[in-house]
Structure formats: structure tokens, C-alpha cells
Amino acid sequence: MKIKQYLTAIAASVLMPILIVLAIFPVRDWFTTTDIVMLQLLWVTLVALRSNRRVAAITTLVSVACTDWFFVTPYFTFHIENIEYMVTFAVMLIVGLVISQLAGQLTSKISDIKHHASNTSCLYELAKGLNGLDEIDRQRGYFQTTIEQHLQIELDWLQPIPAQQGLPVNYFAIGEVDSRWGGFTASQQLDEEQSAFLNTAISVLYQAHENTQLRQQSAAISVQAELERAKNALLRSLSHDLRTPLATIMGASSMLADENIVLTEAMAAEQARNIYEQSKILNEHFDKVMELSRVNKMGEDLKWQAISLQTLISEAQARRQQLLFDFQLVTQVSEQDSCEGDITLLEIALANMFENASRYGDGHADLSFHYRQHAQQVDYQLCITNRLASSLQSSTDQGVGLGSVICDVVAKFHHGSFTLDINEQQQSATACLVWSKLND
């Protein structure tokens, strides 16, 4: 490449001025010396715009020499008899050198502007790309790839280095020298401009890392607050759901144990049945607690996958097969309908929705499915509507039910929510499980 550039410079500064005068030489009587000087200056200007100032200066000197050799008497010598030609050549030389100097400065400024524009564009794309990534490792990988392509160098990432230790050659820390983010080393010595650009780019990476950490901390605080809310709801539900069967068991057992109370065999059998029925209710509550614990454990390792809606519904019904024996469900779901999520968690949530509809409804329910895709997110919604078996009696200590708590926890793990709306006028209840899938 350098040889090609060298040959091009020789052709522009030496050969072309000679070719120009040779082309004019047969008709030199048609032109004055001034006309020929203007034609030579035209070529000097073109060379100055297309090449550098050094080549343009050499072209000016060669043009002056060629004009003197071929067009000034005595011909084919550098002797000048007329002082007028001296002035012409001096002006030509000065103008040519000025043109080459100005053109060189213009070319240099244009090159600097293009270079700065390229750097600015790279920093803009870098900031845009980093802001679209939510993981520190992915941000670092994107930064390394982008800077290596732009500067045509190789970068190696290093773990954080304490300030008291010696720093490697060409080391650029992300933030402070002892920053927890580490830093990069360049494979070659960088000039001042490259070092300044790399430091600016690293500051952009540092800001992206800090913003990501703040978002993660904010999300962790939100999750903690949501967990506290869920714990309060769980305690409230347990308090309400366990109080009634425990009170019944304690009352019935105290009657059986009291020697001062004489019970007939029928009355004793009735109290024993009460203890048994309430014990079954307590056992169901403990099963719910275990299921909730399982849901929390599985939610820590959420597995997204494509799920057929019909498969999801049938598997959820199978989980409550005995309870849903006489339960009639009308679905508005086609064979093509599908969703994404953790199939086990969604089965558990839908099974609890079926159980609530069966336990508190009239044995019939309608299920509908909706989804909406926008930007990089898909929203899914499963709703079950049923008529109530009887009017709900509000109570100050009424819980929300562990089944509803489980559905709410599953929804939160899927970036969604669970709602239960009861219409006392129409004596109907609608439970909706809503969740979202973010497309990477």
C-alpha cells in the first residue's frame, strides 16, 4: 500500500506536470507564458485538494521548472533573460505554495472532523447499546467488541486490581483504579488521541455499570417490599383460615374431655365427626402451605418455555382431579393458542383458580385467554368467571385464601399480577392471572 501511494505521488508531482507541458508544447505559439502558468496552477490546485501539502509543493516546483525549460527563451535551459518571467515564476511559486498550504490545512481539518464524527458516532452507538443490556457481563462484552472494531486493537479484561499493586502496561480501569468493575489492557501502545477516546468510552461503560447496579438494587428493594406484602397476606390468610377449624376442634374435644358433661352416643359421635372434618380442613391448609413453599423454591429458578393452552388446562385439572369431578368448565381456547412461562408454576396457579371456582361457585365456570404483543413484550391473561354458590359474608378478619396467595406469587415471578373481583350484585367472581414475557 505504501509503494502504491509513493508511485501515485511521483506521478502527480513529476510526471503529470511534464505531460501537461509536452501536450501544450506543439501549440506553444497559441499561448502566452501567463496562460501556461495558469494551466499549471490549475493542476497544482487539483493535486493540493486530492493529496497532501508536500506533494502539492513538489508539483509547484516541477511545474515552474517545466514552464521555464519548455516555454521561456532560450528554450531547454533554465536561463531567464527577461526579468518579467522572473516575477511570473516567483508569483506562480508563491501562489502554488500558498494553495498547497491552504489545501493541506483544509484536508487536515476535514480529516479531523471525520475522525471526531466517527468517534462521536461510535460513542453514541456504544451508549445506546449498553443501555439496552441489563447484565454487567454482556455490557462488558459489547464494549470490548465495539472498541476493538473501532480502534483496530485487542483488549483484555482484568479482574479488579488493588491500588497498592503495580498496574499493567496500557491499563484502563473502569472507574477508580481499585474499582470493583476491573479494567482493560490494550494489546499495543496507544497514542494520546486513542487513549483519550478509550478513557471516554470507559467512562460511558462505567456509567452503564452504575445505572445497571442501581436498577438491580431498586428491583431488589421492590421484590423485598412485595415479599413483605405477600408475607403479611399469608399471615392474614393463615390466621383466618386456621382460626375456625382450630376453634371447632378445641370446642368439640373439650366437650368430650369434660367429665361433668354427659353426652349421648349420638352427641359424642357428632363431636368426633366435627373434629375429623375440621382436621381435614387443617390438613388441606398445611398442604397449601407446602405448595406455597414449593412455588417459592421453584420461582428462584424460573424456566421459560412455550406451552400449549389446552395442555396447560388439562394438566391443571389433573392436579385437582377428585375435587373437580363434578366441575364443568367452558373454555374459549383454540388448539393454536399458546403462551410462555414456567409450565409447572402456571399449572399450580391455574389448579388453584379451578379449585376456588369449584369450592365457592355453583359448579360451572368460563375460562378465557387473551394475549397482546407490543414492542419487545408479550402480555398473557387467563380469566375464570363463575357464579357464586351463596352471598359472601364480609368479615373484618376474612383472609384472601392461600390459593389466591399462591396465584399471586406465581404471577409476580412471571412479571405479572393476580386479581380476584367479586360482584355481589350479580353474584359472580372473576379471577385473572396476568403475566408478561420480555423478548430479548
Could you tell me the strand content as a percent range? 15-25%
Helix/strand order, N-terminal first: HHHHHEEEHHEHEEHEEHEE
Give the strand line-up of the largest sheet.
5-7-8-10-9
Largest sheet: 5 strands, mixed
Question: What's the N-to-C terminus distance?
Answer: 44 Å
Considering DSSP H and I runs of 4 or more, what fraction of the residues is helical? 55-70%
Q: What's the count of strands?
A: 10
- Output the radius of gyration: 43 Å
What is the average of the pLDDT values?
A: 80
Low-confidence stretches: 391-400
Shape: rod-shaped
> Structural class of the helix and strand makeup?
alpha+beta
Discrete helix count? 10
Walk me through the structure.
The chain is an alpha+beta fold and 440 residues long. It is built from ten helices and ten strands. The protein has helices at residues 2-24, 33-50, 53-71, 83-131, 136-151, 192-257, 265-299, 309-319, 343-360, 402-413; strands at 155-158, 171-173, 183-186, 305-308, 328-332, 338-341, 361-374, 377-388, 417-423, 428-438. Strands 5-7-8-10-9 form a five-stranded mixed beta sheet. The chain has a three-stranded antiparallel beta sheet with strand order 1-3-2, covered by helices on one side. Helix 4 (83-131) packs parallel to helix 6 (192-257) and helix 7 (265-299) packs parallel to helix 10 (402-413). The longest helix has 66 residues, at 192-257. The protein is rod-shaped. Residues 391-400 have low confidence and may be disordered.
